Amino acid sequence: MRSLADLEQQATARLGGPAYGHDALISCDRLVRIFTADGVEVQALQGLDLLVGKGELMALVGASGSGKSTLLNILAGLDVPTAGAASVDGYDLLAMDAAARLSYRRHVVGFVWQQTARNLLPYLTAAQNVVLPMQLAGRGGRGARRRYSARAAELLDMVGVGHCRDRHPGQMSGGEQQRAAIAVALANSPAVILADEPTGELDSATGEQVFASFRTANEELGTTVVVVTHDHAVANSVRRTVAIRDGRTASEVVRRTEVDEHGQESVVAREYATVDRAGRLQLPRDYTDALDIRSRVLLELEQDHIGVWPDRPEE
Ligand SMILES: Nc1ncnc2c1ncn2[C@@H]1O[C@H](COP(=O)(O)OP(=O)(O)OP(=O)(O)O)[C@@H](O)[C@H]1O
């Protein structure tokens, strides 16, 4: 059994280890975003830490106003944090100049928004919508047109809407439009796709089909996918769901498939509380309510766990 001295030694040794997030595709370190509107400050992100591995398909959930869209806009390169550090695929999101930001948005990230109309240009066909980002990225050269249109057809087929190739968005259902939007987001082979409530305007069956297209992109192309969602079906079908509360990551659910001795597969979900870089931990509200925990708790370091007790007056 390890002694407390051993544990302390281990903790000290860790201080000299690799930097936080060194092997993550997305790394947010104590991210802060403060908005000022009419002289009033809103702290949308209050020291948020998040790491996302290359090739992950994960969901972000949280109450309205908890900071999910603010985070996604920062990761999309559309907004800049007030403080902290954030990087995606080696790009430092606080230090990019205008040219780097444009290149980042064209080549590193793809987005899918909730409003179907925001994702596609109405006067272009689905295939033309997919070709557009490739043209804008401007690699061009001989045979580019044929190459672009072949890639557009391939991507539309992959997400299951090859039949909509020559249709305008107005001639497609909401689900078909969102799937075409995924093909548009994939056009320049981004490292990551960010999606803000992509199934929010769809019924549940259509939402499932759209989510299946994200999964296909993730599995077939290895694209990392981060989806902000209120949709329980989506949140429950990914390996990792991170919950944001009051501008910080609060907890996460990790799911893995287990096979029993009869070969029967089942998904086991475990919920973890996040410990941030400053050592802060948010206790779930139902736990603090159940034990009437208010301003402080008693802590005790044991060999393999930390005891947390409500602060009761001494008898
Ligand atoms: N441009 C802005 N100016 C001022 N305040 C803002 C701005 N954008 C967001 N906020 C505020 O920041 C906080 C976080 O907002 P955000 O949109 O990130 O939350 P959310 O978790 O995405 O919510 P929802 O699920 O409703 O979309 C909210 O209090 C919001 O009012």
Report on this model:
The protein has helices at 4-15, 68-75, 98-107, 116-119, 126-137, 144-158, 174-186, 204-221, 232-235, 285-290; strands spanning 26-37, 40-52, 57-61, 83-88, 91-92, 109-112, 192-196, 224-228, 240-245, 248-259, 265-273, 297-301, 306-310. It has a 7-stranded mixed sheet, sandwiched between helices. It has a domain at 283-315. The protein is α/β, with parallel strands linked by helices and 315 residues long. The mean pLDDT is 89. It is 32% helix and 28% strand. The structure holds adenosine-5'-triphosphate (ATP).
Question: Unreliable segments (pLDDT under 50, ≥5 consecutive)?
Answer: none
Coarse morphology: globular
Number of strands: 13
What average pLDDT do the residues reach?
A: 89
Q: What strand order characterises the main sheet?
A: 6-7-8-3-9-10-11
Keywords:
single chain, 315 residues, alpha/beta, seven-stranded mixed sheet, 13 strands, binds adenosine-5'-triphosphate, nucleotide-binding, transport
Summarize the structure.
By secondary structure, the chain is an alpha/beta fold. It is built from 10 helices and 13 strands.
Write the layout of secondary structure elements.
Layout: H1 4-15, E1 26-37, E2 40-52, E3 57-61, H2 68-75, E4 83-88, E5 91-92, H3 98-107, E6 109-112, H4 116-119, H5 126-137, H6 144-158, H7 174-186, E7 192-196, H8 204-221, E8 224-228, H9 232-235, E9 240-245, E10 248-259, E11 265-273, H10 285-290, E12 297-301, E13 306-310
Parallel strand pairs: 3-8, 3-9, 6-7, 7-8
Antiparallel strand pairs: 1-2, 1-4, 4-5, 9-10, 10-11, 12-13
The structure holds adenosine-5'-triphosphate.
Adenosine-5'-triphosphate is lined by residues 35, 37, 42, 44, 62, 64-70.
